[in-house]
Automatic annotation (TrEMBL):
Gene3D superfamilies hit by this protein: Tetratricopeptide repeat domain (1.25.40.10)
Name listed for the protein in its UniProt record: Tetratricopeptide repeat protein
InterPro entries in the cross-refs: TPR-like_helical_dom_sf, TPR_rpt
TM regions (residue ranges): 9-29
Amino acid sequence: MQKRTQKLTVYVIVGLLIISLVGTSFMFLGDMRPTVGKNYQDQINSLKQALEANPQDTQTRLALADTYYDWGMQTLSQDMAEENLATTTSILQQAVTEYQEVLKTEKNVNILVDMATAAFYTSQNELADQTFQEALQEDPNFYNGLYNYGVFLYSQGDYGKAIEQWEKALALENISPDNKERLERNIKLAQDGIVQQFQQPENGDSSDANAEAK
């Protein structure tokens, strides 16, 4: 039970990440969610039919992976209730599976980061870590890669390395004021996490629990 609670805590902490990557339009859907879900399913069905006709069509498979990814991240950004995590995880797992197929024939930093992010949210931590690192080898200055890898490292309690990724992102040229503010806030959270790690032997508090209360 504690592990599931900590997982939810991380989702709450990084909720702004989802909105920043998926798009602000999803913030205002409200009661339209079931319709949007149906629209995603319709898109998926159409793409699957196209793949049945041409299984080697990498771009169609990538579109399928992206559709699963967008649907899963949208669902997570709107409703982080524990009882809905299984459905969201299932959707994102489909994204991981399709991205893995795409990467057999086409590799770029966007695909790698999206797959790593989906793997993170499905608790495939080793796969997420390896894929984030691979993405940043491809492009060390890719903002989404630096940001999301920092979120992943934060979730693992590796606050120092999370700060390192976010500081690299903060040093990039032409980042928006909103992203700068978000990075600075996350760095402060990670710095607080380091302090709490040193204090933990004395008070026994979980750093995740403390972060949730902020």
